[in-house]
Specification:
Blueprint: E1 4-9, H1 17-28, E2 32-39, H2 42-53, E3 58-63, H3 70-90, H4 96-103, H5 107-115, E4 121-125, H6 130-140, E5 144-148, H7 160-179, E6 182-185, H8 188-198, E7 203-204, E8 226-235, H9 241-251, E9 255-263, H10 267-278, E10 282-287, E11 304-307, H11 314-318, H12 322-326, E12 334-337, H13 343-349, E13 353-356, H14 361-373, H15 375-391, H16 401-412
Parallel strand pairs: 1-2, 1-4, 2-3, 4-5, 5-6, 6-7, 8-9, 8-11, 9-10, 11-12, 12-13
Length: 413
């Protein structure tokens, strides 16, 4: 009998590459896969349709976009805000049910969507889906597994509002860790932090992608500006872009900073002010978000990939970003910060990376200047980056896709 696995994310398919890759891998391994996801952003809804058209597994969508599901948008929003107010007033006395309602806007809707079909295993990630995965599976009497892509109880800043969200996440993570058949985490550092805090060590499954079939061609930077590339779902502050602008100003060479994603309100304007003030030879260029299926391909054509993660919150210290793992797949040298989550990758990239401490703009500028001034050094850096990807940092490596498929098999076989 074919075993059934339900994959769950509180995000869009187009913004949940980890769950998308999990669904594809388990479908390929012979499981009957259904994916439960959400719809709340118009640009991502279009991308989701393209993603689904390329797959054979089935999907269930919880729609709470204002334009397409106005009643659900209003009801879930009102319920979510009321729960947040109650959670903030109760402090440490808040019960688990209230913590769940204040942490996930669509918890009830996700639970119902999961329960609409039986499964032999429920597996899911994204902050708003973790508690729903556990509750639905418990009500089914089925095993469940969760993905801590991030250290959710350390994602927010240490201020009153941020502390409340971190406390809610701690309640939920602690509860699901107790009964989960297995847990995955986005980095070894996150897995270690979870082991120390919750007494269970997750399996580190990194944000790697498929290795291209052909090695990249290194043309190297010869003439014109140095083209630097950065992507994320949201373009916003405290992501290291300020370091890059300041470093570009120090080297004083023509450069381009290409950023891809949805800008936080007013951020691009403030970043352009910083560019004008500190780096007049730097050109800031913004690109629209894209599907995860073409994430690797869109890195081609640039000279340098940027992964300047900061350490403003614990999760930033521990995370190993999908940026840092995507650039090597196209042979891009990587600018990477020396954080606990990224340190091992930086060492493995070797000459393929400029590694600097967050805020050490002088060191970053020195590395960029070497790459700008010597095309041979830049080409060698690209080759070293690709070799690290080919050897270890790709989705088909046994410790990535293989580790996830093996964990599922142990549960449902």
């Amino acid at each position: 009998m074919t075993r059934r696995v339900t994959i769950v994310t509180a995000g869009h398919l187009a913004t949940s590459p980890r769950m998308l890759k999990a669904a594809d891998a388990l479908d390929e391994a012979g499981y009957a896969v259904r994916v439960v996801s959400a719809n709340f952003m118009s640009w991502a809804a279009d991308a989701d349709r393209r993603v689904r058209a390329r797959r054979r597994w089935r999907s269930t969508v919880v729609d709470y976009q204002r334009d397409t599901a106005a009643a659900r948008w209003f009801i879930t929003g009102a319920r979510f805000r009321a729960a947040q107010v109650a959670a903030s007033r109760l402090g440490a006395r808040r019960p688990k049910g209230l913590a769940v309602a204040a942490f996930s806007r669509i918890h009830c809707e996700l639970v119902n969507a999961i329960l609409s079909e039986d499964a032999d295993l429920v597996y899911g990630g994204k902050t708003g889906a973790i508690a729903a995965v556990a509750e639905a599976a418990r009500r089914m009497g089925r095993p469940f597994a969760v993905d801590f892509e991030d250290f959710h109880c350390g994602e927010q800043r240490d201020d009153p509002a941020g502390r409340i969200v971190n406390e809610l996440a701690d309640i939920i993570m602690r509860d699901v860790a107790r009964d989960a058949a297995f847990i995955t985490a986005g980095s070894a550092a996150i897995a270690d932090a979870c082991a120390a805090r919750f007494g269970v060590r997750p399996i580190a499954v990194h944000n790697t992608f498929e290795l291209p079939t052909e090695a990249p061609r290194w043309n190297g930077h010869a003439a014109g500006p140095l083209r630097m590339y950065w992507f994320s779902q949201t373009i916003g502050p405290r992501r290291g872009l300020e370091d890059v602008v300041a470093a570009a100003g120090l080297i004083g060479r023509p450069c381009e900073l290409h950023v891809r994603g949805v800008p936080a309100a007013g951020y691009l304007e403030s970043l352009q002010v910083l560019v004008t003030s500190l780096a007049p030879k730097l050109t800031l260029i913004r690109h629209e978000p894209i599907d995860p299926d073409v994430l690797v391909d869109t890195c081609r054509g640039f000279d340098v990939g940027l992964a300047p993660e900061q350490m403003a919150v614990p999760n930033q210290e521990l995370a190993l970003s999908n940026k840092s793992l995507t650039y090597p797949l196209t042979g891009l040298p990587v600018v990477i910060t020396d954080t606990p989550g990224q340190r091992a990758l930086a060492r493995d990239l070797g000459a393929g990376a400029v590694c600097y401490r967050p805020g050490d703009v002088a060191s970053l500028a020195g590395g960029l200047a070497r790459w700008f001034d010597d095309p041979d050094v830049l080409r060698a850096a690209g080759a070293a980056s690709w070799e690290a990807a080919r050897r270890r940092w790709h989705w088909r490596h046994p410790e990535e896709c293989g580790a996830l498929v093996a964990a599922v098999a142990r549960v449902v076989s």
